[in-house]
Amino acid sequence: MGVLMSRRQTVERVQKVSLAVSAFKDGLREQPSTRRRAEAGTARQGTLEQEVQEGEEEASAGPSQPEESSASKAAWERLRDGRGVEPEEFDRANRFTPPAFIRPKRELHDDEPPDISLEQREQIVNDEMCEICEVWTAESLFPCRICPRVYHDGCLRRMGYLQKDSAVEVTETAHTETGWSCYYCDNLNLLLTEEEMYSLMETLKNCKIIPESCLTLDDFLHYKHQVHKQQFERTMPEAQEEQAALQFNALDPDKKGHIEWQDFLSHESIQLLQKIRPQNALLRLLTTKERERARAAFLALDQDNDGFIGEGECRQARHTWFRKHQKEMLSCNVSISHVGPISEGSPASSRNGKSPEKILPATKQEETRSIDWPRFLRENVAYILAARPNSAALHLQPLA
């Protein structure tokens, strides 16, 4: 506990020093312009016309240009550091110091297949003390459904991670089977290393994507076309454009006509992980809770207990368990990780009175093709990770 406290104090001290240094640099940046004005005022006896012209030049330059560049720079810095959107009007008075996120580093053995046994179950144990204040208060702690961390809702509010709507969501879902993801697990971008994040930022800059902005369908398709052309030096096929349009709809579940920046960033982060890292490396990102849900999902599909399931069943799991936790399932109080495939007549099969998304039936070839536990994990690991965020958006749309 003493180590944790000293680490937090160190972070706060570094942040204070950084603020002081930035303020000092801002002061130095302002000094030359002031000095030049003073020298110009004493060196010449300006006429009225010169003063008017000088005022017009200052007005044309205006303060908006440096303000926009500084705002854009701050947005890119937040993206690099893994922080969320922090609007200027957000009042941080009387709030805890935000955590300093440290991006992961690749290890030498990451690409080797991890030993994840189907028979050997893992015990899930949550932390006893709040991750923020390090105080134990029993039932008032809210657990994360991905990692073992627990939190006080008051501490989350003082950190600025819990607003009015999200506060209700945490208190209603944290102790249910649906669960709630903490601010570490909710941000898929924090899974990227510094090198991977630099690669993503370069792609976004080359495609003229403005950080912390919403993207319409045209913006999203234009971005996908540019990325494909940069990577393969040819136009994106029509089939891939249709798949990109389906992904946009999955990222816009409320049909607002645009996707939020955090959802776009999570989608691009999981896409980059799929491209750069092998499946064995992605398997090492799974937590104990995620591995246990995957075991329960496989065992529920393996009706004859022979250690194999059909490929159609594997695809069905991808469209149900590993796609996204549905809030509507709270009413029927069932776990999507401990029941069989959802039938059309079940309470969880409809959403807002609409017909559920249809899953294509398995072909005869899929039904005869068997999948064992290791392959089941490898093929679904990206969808398990993509289901971490609390957002209703599907950050990785399963292929039909």
Automatic annotation (TrEMBL):
Q: Which Pfam families match?
A: zf-RING_15
Renumbered residue ranges of the record's region Disordered:
24-94, 341-366
* Domain EF-hand as annotated: residue spans: 289-324
A cellular component term (GO) from this record?
A: nucleus
Please note every region of biased composition (Basic and acidic residues). 26-39, 75-94
User: SUPFAM superfamilies, alphabetically?
Assistant: EF-hand (SSF47473), FYVE/PHD zinc finger (SSF57903)
Keywords from UniProt, A to Z, are: Metal-binding, Zinc, Zinc-finger
UniProt keyword Metal-binding present: yes
Alphabetized GO MF terms:
calcium ion binding; transcription corepressor activity; zinc ion binding
Read off the PROSITE patterns from this record: EF_HAND_2, ZF_PHD_1
Q: What Gene3D superfamilies does the record tag this protein with?
A: EF-hand, Zinc/RING finger domain, C3HC4 (zinc finger)
Q: According to the UniProt entry, which residue ranges have a biased composition of type Polar residues?
A: 62-72
In its UniProt entry, what is this protein called?
A: PHF24 protein
| Source species | Rhipidura dahli
Gene this protein is translated from: Phf24
